[in-house]
Structure to design on (224 residues):
């Protein structure tokens, strides 16, 4: 009995109870804000819901709030967004990032094993890990930029599917200062192995699916 108690204490939580509650409340607020102010529409949530275990999700990075908008689609579970370490030190915003389950990217080889271990604990618990493979935010630009390999490396190493998501924009009505935002959630792409060729193949599959969505967006807002 005592040994069981010691084991339970030694097992680290994914996040604190406060952060979990803060995340759930914040995601509801951010979703509502997106729907009302930015005209956010989401299609394809069934593709995320159908994946019962842990997943890696990816999206193009085109808005300050696209991380929370993606994480907010994981209703019934949670998603840790992988973020630049500098974001954790921003005034005010850094505090919010810290409590929104974000995971800082490793700053060097010495942090890689701890980073992977954290991702593994997250997906093993049936939760999500979100990457922006373009790496850098480009506001209102849905032309897909080159992808970094990290999301696909970890999906293959952890043997979890990748759920691609794409932000596009509709034609701006006269009464909106910005075009409405559409988030398309695509069917999961499953890794076929963990060799370098498998990682490259998974990246290509995901990017091709995302490019098809961007190609179908209105021309006047999809390529800025």
């Amino acid at each position: 009995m005592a040994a069981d108690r010691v084991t339970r204490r030694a097992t680290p939580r994914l996040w604190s109870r406060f952060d979990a509650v803060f995340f759930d409340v914040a995601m509801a607020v951010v979703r509502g804000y997106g729907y009302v102010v930015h005209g956010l529409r989401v299609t394809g949530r069934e593709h995320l819901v159908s994946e019962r275990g842990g997943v890696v999700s990816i999206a193009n990075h085109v808005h300050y709030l696209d991380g929370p908008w993606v994480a907010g689609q994981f209703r019934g579970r949670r998603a840790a967004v992988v973020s630049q370490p500098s974001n954790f030190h921003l005034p005010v915003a850094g505090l919010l990032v810290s409590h929104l389950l974000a995971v800082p990217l490793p700053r060097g080889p010495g942090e890689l094993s701890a980073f992977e271990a954290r991702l593994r604990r997250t997906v093993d618990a049936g939760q999500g890990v979100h990457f922006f493979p373009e790496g850098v935010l480009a506001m209102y630009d849905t032309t897909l930029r080159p992808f970094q390999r990290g999301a696909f490396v970890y999906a293959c190493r952890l043997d979890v599917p990748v759920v691609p998501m794409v932000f596009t924009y509709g034609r701006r009505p006269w009464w909106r200062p910005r075009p409405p935002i559409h988030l398309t959630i695509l069917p999961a792409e499953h890794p076929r192995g963990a060799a370098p060729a498998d990682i490259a193949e998974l990246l290509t599959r995901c990017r091709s699916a995302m490019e098809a969505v961007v190609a179908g967006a209105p021309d006047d807002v999809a390529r800025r």
In short: The radius of gyration is 18 Å. Residues 179 and 185 are 19 Å apart (CA to CA). The domain at 18-216 is CATH 3.40.1130.10 (Glycerol-3-phosphate (1)-acyltransferase).
